[in-house]
Amino acid sequence: MPKIDESSIIYPGSIASIGFDEPGEHGMVVGNIYKDEIGKYCIDYKFVKIDVPQFVTEEINITDCHTISDVEEKLNIGSDYYKIVLNGDFHVDIEHLTAYFLEKYDRICRIEDNTTPEIDLEELSKEDTIRGTFAKLMKQELDEDDSNKNIIYGAIEYVLKG
Asked: Could you tell me where the beta strands, DSSP code E, fall in the chain?
């Protein structure tokens, strides 16, 4: 929706969204300037939605999904463009899932993987083994700074699940 302030200045933004950083309805403002019956200038305006596809970010928790079909059932793909954000613990091959969706759905533009492998670091770090020591170190890394979460979980999965 356009931004309207008290001075009758209207900033409609872009007429059509050009990316995922511009969500929501887009359109134009149509206005009319006229003099009322006592000679005062007045402004009437209305927002007119432009019916073009929007850029929609859809978050999906895939913790309870065990197959690509399970994840697919959670999709709600219409005529808009989509960025799919996957959350939760995963039990499916994320690389295969991503390739499958991008090939099958032409309206999915991007898939963001925010999932974590189903590994209990807390429990593993209690083991008095090399695996336990590794899990303890990785847990400390995550506790200190989780900005590299995907890299750390990738390493954990590679080492522990091989």
From this structure: 3-4, 10-11, 27-35, 41-49, 55-61, 81-90, 108-117
